[in-house]
């Protein structure tokens, strides 16, 4: 990842990640149980912005993009979000 200071009051951070899982477990709503499936991989990037307009106040926001797929088939993982974010 990288961190960039944009003046005294603004900073941005960018991180890339990769996660490889040998056996994925997914909840099957039809049977009501968790099902173990084949291996998966997640590749993504996270971007964060931090603003400190005053010594006592810090405002932050972040967004994460992730591409989660089964390794063998290339199909997307059900219910795995592609984009998420937050503010504080």
Verbal overview:
With 88 residues, the protein is mainly β. It has no helices and 7 strands. Strands 1-2-5-6-7 form a 5-stranded antiparallel beta sheet, with no helix packed on it. It has a two-stranded antiparallel ribbon with strand order 3-4. The radius of gyration is 18 Å and the shape is elongated. It starts with a strand and ends with a strand. The mean pLDDT is 94.
What's the short story on this structure?
The chain is mainly beta and 88 residues long. It is built from no helices and 7 strands.
Furnish the topology, listing elements before pairings.
Elements lengths: L1 E4 L4 E12 L3 E4 L4 E4 L3 E15 L2 E14 L12 E5 L1
Antiparallel strand pairs: 1-2, 2-5, 3-4, 5-6, 6-7
Strand content: over 45%
- The coarse overall form would be elongated
Number of strands: 7
The topology string of helices and strands comes to EEEEEEE
Strand order of the largest sheet: 1-2-5-6-7
Number of helices: 0
Structure classification: mainly beta
Mean pLDDT: 94
Radius of gyration: 18 Å
């Amino acid at each position: 990842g990288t961190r960039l200071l944009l003046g005294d009051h603004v900073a941005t951070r960018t991180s890339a990640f990769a996660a490889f899982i040998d056996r994925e477990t997914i909840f099957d709503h039809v049977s009501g149980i968790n099902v173990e499936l084949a291996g998966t991989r997640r590749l993504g990037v996270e971007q964060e912005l931090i603003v400190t307009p005053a010594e006592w106040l810090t405002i932050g926001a972040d967004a994460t993009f992730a591409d989660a797929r089964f390794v063998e088939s290339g199909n997307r993982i059900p219910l795995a979000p592609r984009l998420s974010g937050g503010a504080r």
